[in-house]
Amino acid sequence: MEARILDERKAFIVNGKKDIGCNFDAPAIKCDSDSLSGTVSQRACVYCGARVVLNPITDAFHIVHGPIGCASYTWDIRGSLTSGSDLYRNSFSTDLSDKDIVFGGEKKLAAAIEEIIEKHNPKLIFVYSTCIVGVIGDDVDAVCKQAEKKHGTRVISVKSPGFSGNKSYGYKMACNAILELIEPHKNQAKIKGVNILGDFNLAGEMWIIKNYLREIGIPVVATITGDSSCETLIKAPAAQLNLVQCAGSMTYLAKKMEEEMGIPFVKISFFGVEDTSASLIRIAEAIGSGENIQKAEAFTEMERNKLNSFMDKYKKNLEGKKAAIYVGGGFKAISLIRQFREMGIETVVVGTQTGKKEDYEVMESLVGKDTVILDDANPAELEAFMKQKGADILVGGVKERPLAYKLGIAFCDHNHERKHALAGYEGVINFTEEINLSLNSPVWKMVRG
Amino acid sequence: MLNLTKKERSERNALRVNPCKTCQPVGAIYAALGVHNCMPHSHGSQGCVSYHRTFLTRHFKEPAIASTSSFTEGASVFGGGSNLRTGVKNIFDIYNPDIIAVHTTCLSETIGDDLNSYIQDMDIPEGKLVIHANTPSYVGSHIFGFYNMMTGFINYLSEATGNCNGKTAIFPGFVNPGDIREMKRLANYMKVPFTMFPDQSGVMDVPMTGDYTMYPKGGTRIPEIAGLGDCKMVLALGELTSEEPASLLERKCKVPYTLLPLPIGIEATDRFVMELAQLSNEEVPYELEEERGQLVDIMLDAHAYFYNKAVAIFGDPDTVLGLTRMVLEMGMLPKYVLTGTPGENFVKLAGKLFEQYGVEGCTAKAAGDLFELHQWIKNEKVDLMIGTSYGKSIARAEDIPFVRAGFPVLDRYAHPYFPIVGYKGALRLVERIAEALMDRQDKTCSDEDFEMVM
Hints:
The complex is a heterodimer. By secondary structure, chain A is of the alpha/beta class. Chain A has three domains: 46-184, 3-Layer(aba) Sandwich (Rossmann fold); 194-294, Rossmann fold, CATH 3.40.50; 319-418, Nitrogenase molybdenum iron protein domain (Rossmann fold), CATH 3.40.50. Chain A contains 19 helices and 14 strands. Chain A has helices at residues 7-10, 46-54, 68-72, 98-103, 106-120, 131-136, 140-151, 167-182, 205-215, 230-233, 247-261, 273-287, 290-318, 330-342, 357-366, 379-389, 400-406, 424-439, 443-448, and strands at residues 13-15, 60-65, 92-93, 124-129, 154-158, 194-199, 220-225, 241-244, 265-267, 322-327, 346-352, 372-375, 393-396, 410-413. In chain A, helix 14 links the parallel strand 10 and strand 11. In chain A, helix 8 (167-182) packs parallel to helix 11 (247-261) and helix 14 (330-342) packs parallel to helix 15. The two termini of chain A are 23 Å apart. The model of chain A is unreliable at 18-26 (pLDDT under 50). In chain B, 44% of the residues lie in helices and 13% in strands. In chain B, strand 13 (384-387), helix 17 and strand 14 form a beta-alpha-beta unit. By secondary structure, chain B is an alpha/beta fold. Chain B has 18 helices and 14 strands. The chains are: A alpha/beta, B alpha/beta. At the A-B interface, helix 2, helix 3, strand 3, helix 4 and helix 5 of A face strand 1, helix 1, helix 2, strand 3 and helix 3 of B. Chain B: This is Nitrogenase molybdenum-iron protein beta chain.
């Protein structure tokens, strides 16, 4: 079937390369720009980007400065787990009303901060600016600074009016907020160890990664931001190396920390056997001793062997199936293409909300020539291409799940609503089992008659 | 869980903690989804619509469509007129609805976008419609957005031609598709020709067919909305949700209305059924009497488990009032009754119910939040909580049996399919409440008190 695609959208959609390396004639995909007006975009805003990055900081008060909606929609939705405080699972807002819009919301914000400081003795407060704050002209920075000065508590302004860019821009604003938090601590003496950037401890994934690093003898200094706290975050400048898992949200912070704190970074991914093993060895090589490298090689070898028989068991169920991927960031999409390949599944449609040009280049090199690659897809496009390419399973987020089901396509959530940890070797098991159970559920027999 | 919440209460004037409401636009989208072949359109940043769709999808487990004007810095400075024009053109080109229902957001309201004149100046394709409603996110709650969108449709479309169509308009309030189906069933039983507006049944509860269609079979038809002006009367269900659109229709088209509570529980369902009976001049059929009798029978059978049990009820105003009446009918004590939606009428109506049933020591609050409810509960515990998924953390923290009802239910399946209205809905509520209380008893009683027959 022919997809109904607006002309303006055509530049956001390409096919995989005919020959890897011979890419002069193919036009580059258009990405990293605003959604078209009038589309049913799957994409979120600046505030959303900032909020999802900072939300896992467990002992912070996250105050959303704006009307109630922005706070309601982001209340405890992230799926990030905590080993410490559960403070971040509450929702705080200034719940601005019409009076505040007319007279300004600064006073209410200042009072809200006071109410928290008086009653709860906070260590760290984030104040998120929403659309409206950008328009009524509240000086949120000044309110935060004043509160900091008065009480000696960190009160950090997150500049995230929804209209001021796209979700990626929100990631950047979150990174700036983290920088503001750790900057006063940047001259610490270095200690052996790494920071993990861009894992949000969804379903406990950060814990899995930390366990692996313990196995190969690499200490973890700070985690940003999964299962983190104010106290652990400010130790981050002491690390030797930054590991960047979610490159889309955290490359900016890693670069800044390299410039300002002299911490180099490597991009890693813990999704799939191939990427998990390569990442662990890479980390050991980057800062470890010979012993660490040996441990990493032995550990990854052992885990890989353990998984072989597991994968063999499932492969017969999975081989030859076709997958569609629609996720937030480019790096995850790339890992998923590889992971599906490990299962014998070909990726026929792949798209992201916020992928960068270089991500799309890697994707193009990994997929077949008939694979559709698309940026900021809307449901109509996803539907058309999944049908056209005969996808059997879609990997995506909450808005894509019912769409897939309606089309009779299996589904796995690789976003906030993931049911199990999907990172590391454990994640391979969970992911494979989930893909298998969704693809082979008896319910499809009922659907297809 | 929720270690922050302390027993000691203190005045909060600026800070909202753990809200029991959300903003107008999501209500506007839900209302617009109840119109056939309609694309809800959010005139604001692209994030709003992403949140609303996610929110609706999490509750209904269905795709929820809506488009956005995708405001940028430029639009926020120069106005969103050109975004809306481009948006409308793109929507008709690519998604081809019959009607676009535009709602505003905090952003477009504050910069002063004049939707009336934008829409008047727009090239709209032949046979297509664009309507709008003002839904500033900083006023009221999603309930306001819901009825404001209804008034938007009535404003643009409903006409009195002078020829009464003999139909009764039923405004169902902010309820689930399962509730709407139950209301329709009752109206059909009573042989009342009606227009349900809005009607999300067949839109947000569509069957699995292997095909995805952006505009499912359900929804109020556009000619039916136009025909609201020719209806003989309106049954406006939900005293705090449906009066605004009903009163607009009265002013605009001289259609009188009767305002009724949501038909939750026996008395409110009786009133709805009697109104229908009056309209059609029909006897209540035996089947309905039987349903009512079965409900009373079960309430009687199980009444010992309900008597004087303290309940906390929270959620949307009309749903909460309905559930309050229902638990009073069951002999329970609605100790805490709370909505996040502002409006002192809620407190008055709840107070009347307390008075009618002669209960004391019950508190009702509008514009409240769940942090406060939690503090109340910490001070004086309840035996049961009834409300939205947002109560689950409190239920866990305080170890209280919990029955989910209202909007949203984000963590369970099939809720939108089943009614809580009508005798059938009440029967379901009685069952769920009894299960919650009796499961608790089975789980926590000592071995010597554990019984096979209850």
